[in-house]
Design brief:
mainly alpha, 2 strands, 300 residues, 11 helices
């Protein structure tokens, strides 16, 4: 039972990454590699601030601001420097590695004996692993509602139009460069916030914790899309990302329960994402085969 509760809590915390990447990957159509640098950046900032005695809420918000700044750097490299999308993200991601080392002063840093969002005295009444569910539920509810409301505003609609058709958006007077920069800032702020939450829940930050993060975030998005109907509103899709993140955690728990090594999780993450991406195509192929078979029977 504790494993199930832990998986739900982890899924809620990691869902922030899925929503963050959804804004760039799905809406803005921007394959942003910055996330592999901003996730550990958020963790490094939050852990360092908490280790130095600062309030965990302030530390988490500062981590989000640091992520937004990293996203802005990638945006400027792309919109003003005319550097290709992937290369702009990789440059920022590479720079973030050294910055994270500077922030922490070492490759990893512990929160042993420090007050975090998950061990505050006000949460002492909760059983083990339940603080992650409570904090994760509060944070992801705020993020989901806030993102849904933002996308319904005039600014949010301009942001969506920029991703759908940049040329048409520019003809309508929308500053697409500004929308791109804004989207990258919001996305990476959410991802850095997710990094700070995961680090606080785990009790440490590591400079290498961003490796493979983009696959984890994509898995949340794709699994949610595969598990539910394609015809959904944007708000519904945000909710499916949260559900997809939890389902993904259950899959990882099942993999570990089968006796596989924890070092193989990145491999299984890639396999799970690959299968999830192939599933819609396989459904169409099988559906087509059924149609052909039914046609042959009808003629027979």
């Amino acid at each position: 039972m504790s494993v199930i509760i832990s998986a739900i809590g982890q899924g809620l915390l990691w869902a922030a990454l899925g929503i963050g990447l959804f804004l760039t990957f799905r809406i803005l159509d921007f394959p942003d590699m910055t996330v592999e640098g901003t996730f550990p950046l958020g963790a490094a900032v939050a852990v360092t601030m908490i280790a130095n005695g600062l309030n965990p809420v302030v530390a988490s918000l500062t981590a989000a601001a640091a992520g937004a700044l990293a996203g802005l750097v990638t945006g400027f490299l792309y919109t003003k420097g005319k550097i290709p999308i992937l290369l702009a993200g990789i440059l920022t991601m590479t720079a973030a590695y050294s910055i994270n080392l500077r922030i922490m002063g070492q490759a990893n840093r512990s929160l042993l004996g420090k007050i975090t969002l998950f061990n505050m005295p006000t949460l002492d009444f909760l059983p083990k692993n339940f603080p992650a569910i409570l904090v994760g539920l509060i944070v992801i509810t705020i993020i989901t509602i806030g993102t849904a409301l933002f996308l319904q505003t005039e600014l949010g609609q301009s942001f969506i139009a920029t991703g759908d058709n940049p040329s048409m958006a520019r003809s309508m007077g929308i500053n697409t460069d500004r929308m791109t920069n804004m989207g990258l800032m919001i996305s990476n702020a959410l991802i850095a916030l997710g990094g700070s939450l995961v680090a606080q829940n785990n009790g440490f930050a590591d400079v290498n914790m961003g490796i493979g993060i983009i696959v984890v975030a994509l898995a949340s998005i794709i699994i949610g899309e595969v598990a539910f109907n394609d015809e959904m509103s944007l708000t519904d899709r945000l909710i499916t990302i949260v559900i997809g993140s939890i389902l993904y955690r259950f899959v990882l728990v099942a993999v570990l329960a089968l006796g596989f090594n924890a070092n193989d999780l990145n491999l299984f993450s890639a396999v799970i994402l690959g299968l999830a991406l192939l599933l819609p195509r396989m459904r169409k192929l099988f559906h087509l085969e059924r149609i052909l078979k039914n046609g042959v029977k009808a003629h027979g």
